[in-house]
Amino acid sequence: MPGSPRVPVHSSGSLEAALAGLLAGTALQLGQPQLWRWEVYALVAGVALALAVLARFLARRGSVGGVRSVLAWALATGLVAWGLAGSRAWVYQSHALEPRLEGRDILVTGVVSDMPQFNEAGIRFRLKVESAILAGTEVRLPQVLALGWYSGSLGPAADGLASELQRQPVPLQAGERWRMAVRLKAPHGSSNPHGFDYELWLWDQGVQATGYVRSGASDPVAENLGPTGLYPLARVRQAARDRILATLAGRGEAGLIAALVVGDQNAIDRADWDVFRATGVAHLMSISGLHVTMFAWVAAALVGRLWRCSASLCLRLPAPHAARIGGLALAGAYAVFSGWGVPAQRTVWMLAVVVVLQLSARRWPWPTVWLLVCAVVVLVDPWALTQAGFWLSFLAVGVLFASGTAEPMPGATRMGRQLRALLREQAVVSVALAPLTLLLFGQFSLVGLVANLLAIPWVTLLVTPLAMLGMVVPTVWQPAAWCIGILGHWLHWLASWPWASVSLPQAPTWAALAAVGGGVLLVLQAPWSLRLLGGALVLPALLWQPLRPAQGEFSLLAADIGQGNAVLVRTQNHALLYDAGPRYSRESDAGHRVLVPLLRALGVRLDMLVVSHRDSDHAGGAASVLAAHPGAALLSSMEEDHVLQGARRGTRCQAGQAWTWDGVSFMVLHPQAADYPAAGRPNAVSCVLRVATQPRDGALPARVALLAGDIERPQEQRLVARGAPLKADVLLVPHHGSRTSSSAEFLDAVAPQWALVQSGYRNRFGHPSPVPLQRYAERHIAVRESPRCGAAFWRSDHPSVVRCHREDGRRYWHHVAP
What we know:
seven-stranded mixed β-sheet; eight-stranded mixed β-sheet; 29 helices; CATH 2.40.50; alpha/beta
């Protein structure tokens, strides 16, 4: 039965303007550093809504029209969207963890609301709070907590949470009710240039407090109060994941199958993620929008074919309509079962809008459809605008709409036409998204087009269906693992190519936006003159090089890496990294998570890595940094048989070592050769590095930085007694501001204007201690702590200023440390 023809929709531009205004208003609200009162947002939204109604009334009477009507709709919807987003943010923030409850032992009763995540350190899980007791009094907590239950000392030390020996955590099941003592803190992550916004991610996940289970010998024993029947889907997902891991025990493919079936991305090894990113297929290895869309397409085709088998069903509802509705419903079910992650949610809303528009029997202009889908997603989740996946997904869809279809090939078979269309679409998307990918991640896969041509159909049409079928027939997971193994060999081969991926410094906003626009122009079916303009717009981002210090000057960037040290020193043509931050877990360290991406985004190639001593909060990320910078020399105080010496044979630091880069002098002040045999602790032989501009006009060095590692009072006093050149403008505070360091004599000798403290928020050591902080205050030395400052930036040619990334890039969802 032929369907009725679609009626084209002709728009005056008011609808598109209203949708664009909604997106712009939401984006404007997301740029606020601080929230206003909810009454302000509500008032603005109400007034704007009233103006919109008035404008509509006047337009119908012919009083207002044309450009003024379009602008009025854009302004009205923009203000409404601004008010709605602000009101939602204010309401959400009003349920945040009270500062007085941070670091307190609270007895919480709640239900495990999602699949727990297991690793070598213990268990991480989400707890839906039902009640909370502090010192016999009921207190209010945020609804959802992200907790860790650690075994031994590795996990707490890595997270900076607890120090006492802990009882082994008990396996948790989703849906169980537990009563346990927890210690909480506000969501607080690292704040670095071009870095991952952990606080925004938790905000979008609905988590307003993190913490850990108190399980020391003196703490109350955590009590399992039994299953509740709540969160049955999460329990089924956990059982499915456990069955996958048990069936494929010992096989690396098990983690990827678990990620595709139940959305457990943590099950994928870090090394595999590196290969996926290098080959541009990382979007396939989790429940992404592509998976949900392809699932909807396959489900719609299957429902449509089955529906056509019944004439009576077709008479009640046309098969194309049934196919679209059935595909959407099954795709929604798949997204829910896989964990209802934010990318999957976004895709389901997008598909729902498209299906509704298709069922309306109208032919909508593609810009209207595209804007409407974007607007619906943003109305449901305003913070989607801050997610890379949102922009990648919608830019890809937009350029495919705008670039049109390829001219048909005379005499080509149906398969040939489909293959040509697939090649063209993949090429269009790859070219158009390349500038945006570089803007968002600082990296682009040159083999991504080739890798995706095989990986997309292989994963979506073969691996994923087999993985899902394994839920019914578990033996099918073995063939799925074989298919993953074949794909893995292909991807590893591509990743081994010398230029598999390219990394470029991240360009400023103006150049990045121009490059994104240029990428779109390149793939449009437009005159070649316009495409050449697109190429010209891309060039500034490709050729961009960050400003470097002038000859004879240097800069410091103290990265925000938690409890540990990592300071980047740059001269005009050289770069040195002093310490590499902590090791967070067996699979994660500050080098891989923070420093390597930071150095890549800044366009820095290291000449030297200085590891002050072997403690894990200083050397934990060194292996990752050295692997990413094979040309960097290693200078450290570590013993000859240390594992890091096997990765890169280094030189032992010793007082008197000196060199000059670009007119800037570097000198090691500690330890002396005699200190090594007598050192009882690694702190005693921390490498102390002095960086200084050259003397000018016979005077002392104009500007000096002193990087002191973890030296303590005895080493400080020895440096003072030896008459070492300690006076400096900026000081990396010794031992993170511990009670055993920053002695009065040492501070008098250094006499810095600035003191930088690198420590973790609410770290288990209590760094920096109030006692040394008082000594800094008495000497009018300005202290900048990474929990409040984020990454700190200082330049020798502007010595009176320390810029804090957490202050420069503040948004209202960012935590402000008390």
